[in-house]
Amino acid sequence: MSSAKTKLDDAVSATLLPEGYKPSADEEFMNPLQLEYFKQKLLKWRAELLNEANQTLQNLSTESLHKPDQMDRAQIESSAALDLRTRDRERKLIQKIESALRRIEDGSYGYCEDTDEPISLERLEARPIASMTIQAQERHEKMERIHRDD
């Protein structure tokens, strides 16, 4: 996605939400304001992750592995490996953010993909990429542990 399009989307989105808006259980679940709130939250999170990834790339390209001291080179390589592992985890997180944004667009965001029950606003606030209720997630993780041990 182009930077200009992202800035335009952010500007348009920012005008739709009242300042200081937070989703509440007193309103209709996943009404347009709630959807816009979570969309903006996801877009901001994605932008932060992409910015960090770009910063890592810049740092890696400016680091010199031509240091004469072996300890210096080892430290640079170790730091770069850690940064790359972190960015790989963040790449996977960006994919989950993209998936959540697609669910907002198709109208399934906020509902458990396993049970179709609403996911609590508290859970979505803490983990806006959540695609299952806590109970369904626990069942899913339990089944993963059982099958992993086979």
- Provide mean pLDDT, rounded: 85
Which outline best applies?
A: flat
Task: Output the CATH class name of the largest domain.
Answer: Mainly Alpha
CATH topology annotation of the largest domain: Four Helix Bundle (Hemerythrin (Met), subunit A)
Q: Indicate the proportion of strand residues.
A: under 5%
Taken together, the total number of domains comes to: 2
Structural class: mainly alpha
Q: CATH superfamily name of the largest domain?
A: DksA, coiled-coil domain
Report on the structure:
- Helix 2 runs antiparallel to helix 3.
- It contains five helices and no strands.
- The protein has 150 residues and is mainly alpha-helical.
- It has two domains: 83 residues, Four Helix Bundle (Hemerythrin (Met), subunit A); 41 residues, no CATH class.
- It is flat.
- The N terminus is likely disordered.
